[in-house]
Amino acid sequence: MADGIRSIQRAFLVLRAMNEKPVWSLQELQVCTGLPKSTLHRILSALRDERYVRCDEGMYGYYQLTSNVLALSKGVTERSHLVDVAAPILIATTKRIRWPISMGVIDGHEMRVSFCTMPYSPYAIRPSSFGRRYGLFDSALGKAYFTYCGSVERRILYDHLRAHEDPSVGLPSCQQMKGVIQETRKTGFGVRYGRTSAESSAFAIPVFSRGELLATMCYSTFSGSLDETAIKEFLPVLKDAAQTVGALWDQAQGNSEHQVPKLREH
To answer: Which side of the chain, N or C, has fewer Cβ within a 10 Å radius?
Structure first.
């Protein structure tokens, strides 16, 4: 088993190295990776069989990646990159304040938790909230998102909600929606109070980067523990985390655009 894992690690080492430039000789790969030529031969042969590496006749012993490598990134989205940026910040914050923090992204007409720090908190009411979905008007994450997204997106979300309306629940009235927006803008955060001891209470704020709403981030606590004192203490902490994530995302996007130009949609 250990040998198999080592082989996988070495294969990824070779792929990472080859990603640095278009064409490689065996000697260059040996210098770059530190692997023996016999090992490189085996790895490159396997990668050729899987069509991730090309060494065609006439290439005279030079190797290059094929476009099949691009298929390995299809499961990686912009939201995946956002989690990569945000996770260390959220984990460090939870380790400092001890309470769990979650980050949610819009998914259809609901919010989906893309990352949470419950595994790092001694006070989490469940092992994790990763992947859980929350409504736009009955959750802190949803209220913050609906309030701070643009008017065009808000209309799209409203139409989406109407198309997926649950007859047993009903769609909030325009007055109720306006009430959520007004209250959230007034306080600066969306809030949900737990109704039973088995539920948590939470407040959430937006995560922006250059004016673009990326996600919402919430602090959660025991059902009856969210009061003005708790909000006063932890709201600045959450804002600091959100601002840091936004700044790091802006920096990451800038580096990405510098390295790989991309077309913008108009």
So the answer is: C
